[in-house]
Amino acid sequence: MGLKRTDEFRQNAVRIALTSGLPRKQVADDLGGCISP
After folding, report:
1. I need a surface site. Which of 8, 9, 28, 37 has the fewest CB within 10 A?
2. Among 29, 34, 27, which Cα is nearest to 12's?
3. Which keywords accompany this UniProt record (predicted)?
4. pLDDT tens digit string along 1-37?
5. End-to-end CA gap in the chain
6. To which H or E segment does residue 14 belong?
7. Any residues with CB less than 8 A from the CB of 17 and at least 6 apart, and which?
8. What is the number of alpha carbons within 13 Å of residue 25 lying toward its C-beta?
9. Minimal CA–CA distance to 31: which of 19, 13, 15, 18?
């Protein structure tokens, strides 16, 4: 079973993905997750 992520974690992950200028894959790798298509 995968890790449970809090709503706060998900909101921060989206904020980072949208504002960092990094590719989504890089953000996902940095946060230890995976990307959805």
Report:
1. 37
2. 27
3. Plasmid
4. 467 788 998 899 899 999 999 998 898 899 887 766 5
5. 21
6. helix 7-19
7. 24, 27
8. 0
9. 13
Residue 32 is classified by DSSP as T
Report pLDDT for 36. 66
User: What Cα–Cα distance (Å) separates residue 33 from each residue in 4, 7, 10?
Assistant: 11, 14, 11
Q: What is the pTM of this model?
A: 0.66
Cβ contact 27:15 at 8 Å: no
